[in-house]
Amino acid sequence: MTLIIGTLLLVLYRQLVNEQQTQVRQHLLSEAQRYQQLSLTVDRRAFAAQIRASDSRTALIAWQGGVEMVGSLTLMPENMPLLPNTREFPIFTGGPEKLHILTGGVVMTRYGPVLIATRTDHLAALIDKFVSAALTALALTIVLALVVGYLFSKGLLSRLVHYNRLSERIEKGYYNTRLPVSGKQDEFDLLAAQFNRVLDTLEHNLHAVRGVTDNIAHDMRTPLSHLRIGLEQLPYQPPERLAERCGELTDELDHCLATFNAMLSLTRIEEGQQTLELQPVSLHELCADLREMAEALAEERQQTLTLETNEDCVVSGDKHLLFQALFNLVDNAIKYAGEGASICIRQRGGSIEISDNGPGIPEAAREKVFERLVRLDPSRHEQGSGLGLSMVKAILSRHHATINLTDNQPGLKVILNFPRA
């Protein structure tokens, strides 16, 4: 702003000086033309009389009429240029202002050279006053800019210092720290709000990692303990029980390996590392295969598994992964709906519903069940890894499908929506 104001003042100064010079030149040329015309229309005596009668406040006129100097000056200055060229020269008077600065030039008439000049010292004084006022204004602008800039930067730096201190707390592990938002909706508030959202996500992910670690320790402790005890007891087993006991320990080990393999597979799907074998998949045929595969499991628990299909829908996807996701949902319904329950698979266009009349899932826990190794059965009556619904959601996300859990009154209803191919 200081540079802009200084530039504007400089431009204004140049315009003022140019305007002054233009007006003085035009005034002198006008007077020169008048006296040239006058010399052509009157005689020498009348010409001298006109020069003596001229008003010095309008223009100062001097004519060398032979040996006598006629006009406002007692002598003709030397080296005066011909108009329109001009030159400044001083004169001395007997008044209070003894020294005057004039600007003028010589015009050639029929009766000889005539000096035409006008005072310009008052204009120079005006220019000096303007320069003084401009410099004062510029100095005040610089001082004001420095003061305002200091206060503004001090306010900014204080917020930056505060943010830096809070960042150091976060670096030390206090992840519940948040940057303050002043409510002004300025750039710092936008940055703080975005940073706080990042911290919320980070804290949620850290809690999720801690929860996964706790669940891994809880789920793996029991089978690993059984393995250790079983291995210690193998030498003392009777020969006829040795093969059977080895088979039980192998099953325990297979369960552990299956859990870790499921976690690795889930990570590959979520990170997009597993390539999808895309092909046209009929949801009608997929649901039919699903009923055929799960019907035997439902009969073991005296459950009824029905299939209702309507308009077919063809989607583009990996048939194996889609079948795995749907089978996990039906398998969960069979496991947790209870004996004698009714389970229904309903397909309408690009929507698939899997419903049961079992105990269902509380509304507060419907989002939590999609997290890794989360099982709502704390006693672990049913064997599983707690990764089934996480795998389902990952597979559906890769296929741009959605999943929602709702109340079936009673029981649970799972609704899947697929985009058409």
TrEMBL record:
- Cell compartment(s), UniProt: Membrane
- UniProt main location, coarse: membrane
- Keyword Calcium listed? The answer is no
Name one matching Pfam family: HAMP
Q: What Gene Ontology molecular function terms does this protein carry?
A: kinase activity
Which UniProt keywords are given for this protein, alphabetically ordered?
Kinase, Membrane, Phosphoprotein, Transferase, Transmembrane, Transmembrane helix, Two-component regulatory system
What is the E.C. number?
Answer: 2.7.13.3
The protein's name: histidine kinase
